[in-house]
Amino acid sequence: MANRLLESGSVRLLEPALSVLDDASALSETRAGIMALLAPDAENPEWTVADGIVDAFVPPGFLVTWGDGWVQPKTHCLATAALDVIVIAARFEPESGTVALEQLVEIAYGRFAAGGLVPRSVSRPGRFDIGGVAYLAAHIALDSSVSMGGPS
Which helix (H) or strand (E) holds 111? Predict the structure, then answer.
């Protein structure tokens, strides 16, 4: 059966590609897995976990995004995906939120260890802007192996 070209406005897709978009990709599942590790629980029900680009955020919590060097090929089917978990403690005010930020980073480390992940690095605390609002935050850089593009 030949592929049919579908056009809608400026978007052009080959029909078989649509079935791929219906299922979660390895990258989507990786990001969702990180979010699940950071999900609020009975001990810490008050924090927010969000992903991608947001225009507002209610601290404290975690924002899961892709990191620089997003996908680095290892073999034809395996790659390393870079994730950036932005740990957000509070609105940015001098000498506020540092202890909360330290606690959130420690909690995230424990959750990542439970999931078999070792962070590559953690940035120093600093200002991070979302929607024109400044927050006190740190970035935890993670690498995760993903299987992509191989035979299914």
Answer: helix 98-114
Residue-level pLDDT at 49: 94
Contact predicate 136/104, CB 8 Å = no
First to last CA, the chain: 20
pLDDT digits (tens, 9 = 90+) for 84-128: 999 999 999 877 789 999 999 999 999 999 999 999 999 999 999
Q: Which residues contact 33 (CB under 8 A, 6 or more apart)?
A: 115, 144
How large is the average pLDDT for residues 4-13? 39
Work out whether strand 133-147 and strand 126-130 pair parallel, antiparallel, or are unpaired.
antiparallel
Domain locations in the chain? 34-147
Q: How far is CA 20 from CA 15, 23, 24, 62, 78, in A?
A: 10, 6, 8, 29, 18
Predicted TM-score (pTM) of the model is 0.79
CATH class of 34-147: alpha beta
